[in-house]
Amino acid sequence: MPLNTFIAMAAGLWLSAVLVKGWQPVCSPGLCGSMWAQALATLALPLGLGLCKRLGGPCWLGFVTAAVAGALQLTVPLTQALHTRITEECHGQQVNFTGQWEAQTLTATDEVRLSLRAMGDTTPCLKPGALVSVTSPVSALPANAKPGDTLAVPLGLAAPHYALPLQGFDAQWHGLTEGRAGHGRPKGPMLLTDQRPGWMPGYWAEQARWAVTRRINAHPWTGSSKATLIALVTGDQGQISVEDRQLYALTGVAHLLAISGLHITLLAFLVSALLIAGMKRVRNPSSPISAQAIGHSLGFLAALGYALFTGWSAPAQRTVVMLGLWQLHRLLGRHTSPWDIWVKSILVCVWLDPFAWWDLGFQLSFGAVGVLILGHHNRIHLQPCLPAWLASALQAQWVVTLGMLVPTAVLFNQQSLLSPIANALSIPWVSWVSTPLALLGGLFNQSWAIALAAKTLDWHHGWLVWLSAWAPNAWAVPAQPWWVYTLALVGCIGLCLPKGVLPRWFCIALLSLLLWPPPRPAEGEFWLTALDVGQGTAVAIQTRHHLLVYDTGAAKTPRSDQGLRTIHPWLQAQGHERIDVLWLSHADGDHTGGAASLLSLHPTQRWVSPMPDDLPLMRTLKHTAQQQGSDMNHQPCSTMKAWTWEGIRFEPLTTPVQQGDSDNDQSCVLKVSNHAHSVLLTGDIELRAEKRLTEYWPAKVLRSTVLVVPHHGSKTSSTPAFLDAVQPSTAIIQSGWKNSYGHPHPEVMARYTSRGINVLNTAQVGAIQMKFPSNQMPASTCTAVRFRGQYWHMHKSGAHPDEHC
Q1: Under a CB-based contact definition with an 8 Å cutoff, are residues 266 and 435 in contact?
Q2: CA of 134: how far to CAs of 97, 213, 715, in Å?
Q3: In a designed cystine with 604, which of 46, 270, 579, 612 is the match (CB 3.0 to 4.6 A)?
Q4: 526-574 confidence digits (pLDDT tens)
Q5: Where residue 382 falls among pLDDT bands split at 50, 70, 90?
Q6: How far apart are CA 190 and CA 137, in angstroms?
Q7: Nearest Cα to Cα of residue 206 among 74, 266, 117
Q8: What is the number of other CB atoms lying within 10 angstroms of the CB of residue 189?
Q9: What share of the chain is helix, strand, coil (3-state, %, to 5)?
Q10: Are 9 and 347 within 8 A, CB to CB?
Q11: CB 642 within 8 A of CB 511
């Protein structure tokens, strides 16, 4: 069939994916869970392909059949995932769980995240086949337990409810595409049962991964090299520290420290080359099958086996499928173009995994290969001054950096300035030195190779640290409208095309649209954004030219650091590289946890808190700021005076601290106002501080349009006298969904409701943004659930009728 038909089929699959994600498919769990439905969904695309071929391959027919097949393929697993997930009513329930160990990821804290497939009878809270993620210390695993075994453990169930930002990564959709029903926390010992496990495809690969990971972990060294070595050999990146992840992202080499297509291609090349060289010495030259055919075929099988062993990630799938199609065309003696292989590989990968469209590895892997094909004929003439191999490598690096500029801006709101230099040296070192040694040592249990591979990775890590000192921050690319990304993408593609197709100046002009400044409040206006950080507080106040961040959320573990996970991505999307004032209300970890990571990434001009300088937290923050080179002044909030930015007044409402005050009651309160509207930020103040505020400040000072509810709505705050003094029309609560503290308390909620105050809780509506005009017009409110809420989100609207985005 012509290439156009395959392109039409890929377009049909993509359209069906967009439609199914946008509108919930209608299919009963019983029907979609039947063997017949699953068989039909699997065979729909091959049957459509056969029909197109039989009828001559018209494009319209390829598009229609692929769209129908794609809808079937997505509807069946999506319906099952929605049906088996843990519901809100079952959140916190304890069950006696029996499940089969399917996959695992080690963490940097000596824990392992197990993927367990539920077995046994249906219960109200857990259905057979539900995939539950269980985190447990490695030491708590039963002796000799391995993937494929059946484990029994009492679990406390947790529904898959995740933070919902106004834009960016959707963790709840990601979990749904992986088929995860939710999470479980062990409430007792984990036991190995003699129950016969079900058949699990690829169990041998998971067992081998687990064995190799444990073997490498047993070697007597510490540091980041062990985690990186495990990632290179098995694809398990769970042990890589947050600091190293930031380093790899900053230098643009993160793709090398995982199982990338480059590594799998390298393995196939090495196996093929060794086999061809060996067979040429021993085989009969008159044999009907050439040594090249046998060598390339066995090289492909080696690549397939290694891709399965490392978890069958999207880049690995793409590489294996492209190698397989290339080898098939060679064996059949058919000439084909790179674009033909590329498009057919997309069809095969989406057929194998219908959710692949939303996998970042799939998008970036196919995108990188596509721009390499596109830029193949647009050669930079470096051969007269450089060797051909070096010129080719520089050409490929230039094309990939340029072609992936827009995708990385869309996905990550940043671009590494060091990526071209770092990759030019890291690709050959990691690919030809570290990776072969790591594979030899890890797969064949060669201690000397493991030690040498670790040493080469240590050298590479030191080189990256030295390089990162030259540009300590990536280029932040603010979020842009879709039309800006589209035009910039045209500019990128135009620069990759041969000269004369599009004028270079025109392409550069289109690409420069990425520098388009993000929207900002007008003079006299201000915007409030209450970020969804779970049980904690993080509020940003934007004026025309300034930014204040009030508290930074929690950081119970490095992976849950809200400064990194939530606030930093939001600042990048908004185009804020600096923080003018970082206001920490008090010392509680759910208000200050993300401060250190935030200071390490964003220069900060002023830092306000009630904490004494000799507090360990303060010393840590000062050290972090000094490492960043930030000329930051710490000022106690008790000494702060009111100030104005672009017509917006910031007024600290301090009161004398009294003996017996708790840390909560020492929270620094801040009022932000213009001529028409005001916001009161209260930290964790409770009854004593609220009473003191109402006695110390006049009611007209306390009165505010919006109140960020004290102490997340605890029973010990939001007293009637305080609410009567503030008289807000809207109250914002930042609390964790189904948190163990019971915030917000029902009695407190009743006080707000009885006064007609509109309450917005980030646990229910996700992140909240309010824009306050300079006139008497009401403030506009936008919540994440209204802006981007879909059928798979476990959020309740609770929106005000006037809310709009």
Answers
A1: yes
A2: 11, 19, 33
A3: 579
A4: 999 999 999 999 999 999 999 999 999 999 888 889 999 999 999 999 9
A5: very low
A6: 11
A7: 117
A8: 10
A9: 50, 15, 35
A10: yes
A11: no
